[in-house]
## 1
Amino acid sequence: MIELLVVAVGGGVGAAARFMVDGEIRARHSGGFPWGTFVVNVVGSFLIGVFSTLFFTLTHYGVAAEDARMLRFALTTGLCGGFTTFSTATVESIRLAQSGRMRLALANALGTLGLTVAAAGLGIAVGGVFG
Amino acid sequence: MTRAPHRDWRYVGLVALGGAAGSLGRYLLGGWAGALLTPLTVLFPSTADTVLWFPIGTLVVNVVGALALGYLLEALARRGRETVRRRKIRIGIGTGVIGGFTTYSTLALETQQLLADGLGWLALLYVVLSLAGGTAACLGGIAIAARAARRRKGR
């Protein structure tokens, strides 16, 4: 039951942060490429990698397993899950393709995929240093 | 001059509320969709060397969310000029609920975890199904909204 509250609060904070960060980036880059969502997704994927290792780090330093598991859940499924978005990234790639900018569409779709997976791997490696 | 929505706390609050609901939906539907794989675990049982798993929950959530966002944004765009009410729907439901429902970070993390588990072919299947399925579903959502709009005009 507490999981439901935790994921809702984390997801709400994450989504609001995405809205603000995306808006600020958008205001500075009015060109064709959707940098806002792109940056949010890569940063969020790095963070989820770091947070995914948190359980081992926290229990290593004596935090109870139950608390460590809940904090990891709040930050990964909640915060990072709400912060990053797949649907908007998909819509933005399709819009680029529909406006004839096929190369930018592919760069957005494949670039987001490649960089988010790489960022998550980097996050896991960075988080592992503390564990 | 009015504030940009992302600096207006009323809109930020709307996105937070929507994102909370969407994330809750992602957790619940994702967990439920995980059960879809149960029959396959009988056909492809894990062995002592490899523990087979597949993140079907995130895949289902992301494909469903891509369809929903394609539909919503196309339906709103076809209704014409963005009124305050339509902007609240676009930002609250689109950016908040559907944006919070779908996730890219979990997709990236699960791909890394599949790779770490030595299941490279399932990692590849996961990203291909996500991108192809998400794109097809989103185009489907756009097409459904476009057809509904044409029908409305034809009446």
## 2
Amino acid sequence: MNARRADRWCLAALFVLMIATTVASIRYGAMDFSGHDMAAAAWGKLTGQADMPLDQRIFIELRVPRAILCLLVGASLGVGGTLMQGLFRNPIVEPGLVGTSSGAAFGAALFYVFPALLSVNLGGLTLPLVACAGGVLSTYLVFALAHTRREGRSSILRLLLTGLAINALFLSGIGFLSYVARDPAARSIIYWNLGTMSGADWNSVVIVGIATIGGLIPAMGFAKSLNALMIGDDQATALGVNVGRLKWTVLTINVLMVAVATAFTGVISFVGLIVPHILRIVRGPDNRFLILGSALLGGTLLSVADLIARVSLRPAELPIGIVTAVVGVPVFLSLLRSREYLS
Amino acid sequence: MLSTTDLVFRMGKRALIDRISARFEAGRLHLILGPNGAGKSTLIRLLARLLRPTAGKVLYDDRDAVSWSERELARRRAVLPQAIEVAFSLPVRELVLMGRYPHFGARPGAEDLAICDEVMRFFDVMAMADRSYGTLSGGECQRVQFARVLAQIWRPIEGATRHLFLDEPLTFLDVRHQIDFMEKVRIFAAEKDVVVVGVVHDLNLAVQFADRLLLLDQGRVLADGTPAEVLTGENLRAAFAVAPVLLTNPATGKKHLVFESGMKGR
């Protein structure tokens, strides 16, 4: 079918775009690398060369994992946004809506303000672990509060409103913690809430990679069912979808992806909201295209944002959350004006 | 054949459906009538297994509806509701193709695409196949939904009955499209392996098209039979609290109803 073929071309184009931005992203930054340097560093890493020059070590231990982490986190947020907007049948939903990102941010704030409260110390993994736990716990709280025994029409709306309420609660908790905190803890909280890729290393790439791929593949399997949900719970049921099971499975996938991603990078706003919209404007709302497409475009958008965050104030860098909106919103608004998308 | 045995559906303490036993035969058009709150839509939703009964059973070909898997059921029963809001605007052809979802895996086969074309021609929506659903008028939307729903059960299944449920699908249609749609449903219902059960608000349309009527009141069956048997003055007064005047159409011999006023004047 023609539409399917156009989808495949569009995905291929998105893939090429993603590779191109990734190459640019590893090449430029506080320090620029030539093609020769990059190849030498990659060779050194692969062969386990012991006496690698410092700049090559920086490239292979910081720059490359950071670029990959951008792709993974962007993919997680993009796919999370697509899943949640599809599930809630609502275009203004963000992946963090069910409490995940505010809970993670609260966990991170606790870590910064009261490090002594935590008896665990896992080195560099302590913060991600605490944040991820915060994200999962707050999401669980939202689910538990919104859950009713009768799986009715209102349950998705109840979930949405419960998520809003719990988010407000955690945001005020974060506000309180940053109010009582002193520098540098207070600055760390602010920085974390704007998102940062500066903690990227190969460990985080592996962990976020598992969550991203582990979420993306099953999510693609639910694309048809999510399409059926576009025409309502009853009609999806009539088409053979177990709507209750679909909702909880998709929510769980979203929480897994978003909690793990947020745990390593802080709260990155807007990517999850606008990536699905950009793709819908360009290609329509078919989830069989949208899920993989939003993984590719989410990764691309975050790579571009990170590149700008690193080069605009060299050698300092901006929090990535500031840049995502600056990059994404103009694109989004211009597409919104140019098409009859919302008719 | 479709049947129910002592079907009960409770919401809280209140029984919306109160021990209904009824049979719906293939090859006939069954319509359910009743005043607001009689349980018509609830009964349709129970029959289509969009709701699970509190007690009693719905039997598809003498097998409990609860025992079918979602997909098995979706291949043999389709439901047409009053109106459908589509969350994100799809091309019409894609939407109609959704009706074939229970029949294909990752991508539609040649058979699925052929069926889509057939139903789109049947409902006269072929010309808008590539338009976006969001740009259609209310009546066009509903015709596209008819096409999608019938695509789901368009072909006979060996050794099994197909079921079509209509939950007040005519509400937003003008009179020409109402009649047009009911005629198409009749053509479909005349097939030997198809059970059609619907809720229609307009009593005269019911008289004109139904083979069998089921009159509900407060979750119970008040009358069950042919239109002539069910639509008596006594039944209508009991169910709707209005005084009917039954006229006979000289051309067809069918009864038509005119309502005088409420019961107060009597």
